[in-house]
Amino acid sequence: MTTEIERKTIMITDDSLTNLKIGKSALSNIYTILTATSALKMFELLEKHFPALILLDVDMPDMDGYEAIKKLKENPGMRDIPVIFLTGMDDSESEKKGFELGAVDFVLKPFSPDKLRTRVAAHVL
Fold this sequence. Notes:
The protein has helices spanning 17-27, 39-46, 65-74, 92-101, 113-123; strands spanning 9-13, 32-36, 53-57, 83-87, 105-108. It has 125 residues and is of the alpha/beta class. A five-stranded parallel β-sheet has the order 2-1-3-4-5, sandwiched between helices. Strand 3, helix 3 (65-74) and strand 4 (83-87) form a beta-alpha-beta unit. Helix 1 crosses helix 5 (113-123). The chain is globular and about 40 Å long.
């Protein structure tokens, strides 16, 4: 009798439908993918799902990625979920702020599917 290995879940949160599509396409053959178009939607999904990792856009309306990771890390049930920021900001201050708030990595947009898969695999145990 063979046992099916459970696929890990990755949550992609980005207000760009193009980035969600590229991310889902790059990762869906390896992981179960959940997508959210805002941080508010992400938190709604987190009430029912516990992903192995969150890919989180920094620049979003309503609640940006920095605010979202602060809220995530304040919640004892969610604080250990690794977060990789997806961002178009290519400056050391933005990166420093993200790491200080608890991000494990950054992926610059536009990102390649190969680079995204490599970064995600490095942080999903």
